[in-house]
TrEMBL record:
Keywords: Membrane, Transmembrane, Transmembrane helix
Signal sequence region: none
InterPro entries linked to this entry: DUF1275
UniProt xrefs under PANTHER family: SLR0142 PROTEIN, UPF0700 TRANSMEMBRANE PROTEIN YOAK
The keyword Transmembrane appears for this protein: yes
Membrane-crossing residue ranges in chain numbering: 60-81, 93-118, 124-146, 166-185, 191-209
Keyword Amino-acid biosynthesis attributed: no
Name of the protein in question: DUF1275 domain-containing protein
Length: 216
C-alpha cells in the first residue's frame, strides 16, 4: 500500500489524525480507546475476570461500533469506484462534525459513539475490495513491518524500505501528543480539529482525483 510518496503522505496524515482522535478519546474515557481495539480487547478480558460488568459492556459497545464503522467504510468503497477515498474521508469528517456538535449539545455518549464509528470507517481509505487493506488507526502492524523490513535490509534487501512504516508509526505518536494537548485545552470540543483535517483531506483528494481524470 505504501508504494508511492502520495500514499505514504496520506497514510501518515491519517495515522496522525487517528492518534489525535484516539488520545482525546482515551483521556475522556479514562483509559479506553476509540480506535485501538486490541487494547480494548485486553481491557475487556481484564474487566470480565475482575467482574467489572459495566466496564466490560462499555468496551463491547466500543468494539462493536468500530467493527460497524469498518464495514460501513468498505461498503462506501465498494459502491464508489470513483473518488472512493474522497467519499470515505468525507463521511469520516461529517461523523466527527456530528460528534463535536453532539458534545456541544450535551450528548457526550453519542459523541463518543460517532467518533468510534468514524475511526473504524477510516481504515477503508486504502481498501481495494480484497480481504486486506492498510490499518490506519492501529499501528502494531506497522511496527511489525519495520522489524521485518529491517531484517531484510540486513540480509541485502532494500536499505530504507522500512522507513514508510516507521513514519506511519511516528505520525500516530505525534498526533497523539497533539490530541492530548488539545484535550487539555478544549476537552472533547478538540474533536473539531480532527473533523477539519478529515474534511480538508477529502477536499484535497477530490481535487487531485478530478485533475487526474481531466489529464490527457
Amino acid at each position: 500500500m505504501l508504494d508511492s510518496r502520495a500514499n505514504i503522505a496520506l497514510a501518515c496524515l491519517l495515522s496522525s489524525l487517528a492518534g489525535f482522535v484516539d488520545a482525546i478519546g482515551f483521556i475522556h474515557l479514562g483509559g479506553l480507546f476509540v480506535s485501538f481495539m486490541s487494547g480494548n480487547s485486553t481491557r475487556l478480558g481484564v474487566s470480565l475476570q475482575e467482574g467489572h460488568w459495566r466496564e466490560a459492556l462499555e468496551t463491547v459497545g466500543l468494539i462493536a461500533l468500530f467493527v460497524a464503522g469498518a464495514g460501513a467504510g468498505n461498503l462506501i468503497v465498494l459502491g464508489r469506484a470513483s473518488y472512493r477515498q474522497t467519499w470515505v474521508l468525507l463521511a469520516e469528517g461529517l461523523l466527527l462534525v456530528g460528534a463535536a456538535l453532539s458534545h456541544g449539545f450535551g450528548f457526550s455518549a453519542l459523541s463518543i459513539a460517532l467518533i468510534v464509528f468514524a475511526m473504524g470507517l477510516e481504515n477503508a481509505v486504502f481498501f481495494t475490495g480484497g480481504a486486506g487493506g492498510l490499518g490506519l488507526t492501529y499501528i502494531t502492524g506497522a511496527l511489525v513491518r519495520v522489524g521485518q523490513l529491517m531484517a531484510l535490509a540486513l540480509r541485502g534487501g532494500k536499505r530504507w524500505e522500512w522507513l514508510p512504516s516507521f513514519f506511519q508509526w511516528a505520525s500516530l505518536v505525534v498526533g497523539s501528543v497533539l490530541g492530548a494537548f488539545a484535550y487539555r485545552l478544549y476537552s472533547l470540543d478538540a474533536i473539531w480539529f480532527g473533523a477539519a483535517l478529515a474534511l480538508m483531506l477529502s477536499a484535497g483528494l477530490a481535487f487531485v482525483a478530478r485533475a487526474n481524470a481531466a489529464a490527457p
